[in-house]
Design goal:
The structure is a homodimer of 198-residue chains. With 198 residues, chain A is mostly helical. In chain A, strands 1-2 form a two-stranded antiparallel sheet. In chain A, helix 4 runs antiparallel to helix 5 and helix 5 packs antiparallel against helix 6. The longest helix of chain A has 34 residues.
Chain lengths: 198, 198
């Protein structure tokens, strides 16, 4: 990109001067992009660690049914929403690793390849949807665990499985952070393309 | 945009021939963008209608507690997840109306304003996150209503409130459609900027 700009600047100086936004069209925003992707990786890894270590066994009544007395474990595998959450965050973690390499490969270039910006923006937008839906699903179920729902007789469980619920709060926070980072990353790639557009 | 290309094509034909993507950099993708936004509006309106008309009163036992006998209504206001869903989809519906006007204003232009493309891509990405998280939250709670969760004593309610659950299935489908449309719209605006980038 820079190589196609330079001859134009040499051959026709007045044309370049009449288009002030063209002076720095190829800003490299990967200096912001890369740290955000590392943060995305860190948040997804912490979320995965928290969800996989969230088993909590308590001797407790977790239902109104008398047969439910006795020691019982709360595990994320008991909830399809939390399983979906783990799968979605794991895929997002893998994507963050791949995108860190892609971002790192372009950080030193004066004009990063525009196709890379497009591909990153596409996948970032897709992962905004995946991670946000997983966050919503896990948060919706966690809220019932935290508050219960008296209208349909679903009892809260966080008064019993406090350790389990603290873990849930932790990985929901991490997933919220990951979602926000992904929205910013989408905007960043789009803005880079905008700066280079005519 | 087109005017800046034409002099270049006249002055240096070989340079233009070596860059085939520059022949039609200003394609107007609003012809695809506008119908998608109308579809987004339609799906969110249907979702709003379905959620606000989803009240279902049944004489039923919805809990193991003996005091819960008698006629009871299932309403979306009983679930914070479904309230969040309604708010999120309503905001997305308002946004779709605004973006339809923006898209319509640029549909006939040979080169739509690039700032509009950037703003639409930003907001589309944001709404992917909002609508997807609402979809996840509502789907997570709906799944418990459909299947229950024996591990924590949450009983399924869809065997009783079948009309209510059919409505939920309807508006979840609409929200899924809206999420997918929003991802495509983000990609479309980004692709338009990509086609115009150097």
């Amino acid at each position: 990109m820079a190589s196609t700009d330079k001859p134009a600047a040499h051959s026709d100086k007045t044309e370049v001067e009449s288009q002030p936004p063209n002076h720095s069209p190829c800003i490299n925003l990967f200096l912001v992009d890369l740290p955000l992707r590392v943060l995305l990786f860190a948040s997804t890894v912490v979320a995965i660690v928290l969800i996989t270590t969230s088993k909590d066994t308590e001797i407790a009544v977790v239902s109104l049914a008398p047969s439910k007395f006795g020691p019982r474990a709360a595990k994320f595998t008991h909830s399809p929403a939390l399983i979906y959450f783990l799968v979605a965050v794991s895929v997002a973690c893998l994507y963050s690793i791949l995108s860190i390499f892609a971002s790192f490969s372009s950080i030193s270039k004066p004009a990063p390849p525009k196709t890379l910006l497009l591909v990153l923006a596409f996948f970032d937008a897709l992962f905004v949807g995946i991670v946000s839906s997983a966050l919503g699903a896990a948060a919706g179920v966690a809220y019932i665990g935290y508050k219960g729902n008296s209208h349909v007789g679903w009892n809260k469980i966080c008064n019993v499985y406090d350790k389990f619920c603290r873990h849930i709060a932790g990985y929901l926070t991490m997933a919220l952070l990951a979602s926000i980072i992904l929205v910013f990353l989408t905007m960043l790639s789009t803005y880079s393309l905008y700066r280079r557009s005519r």
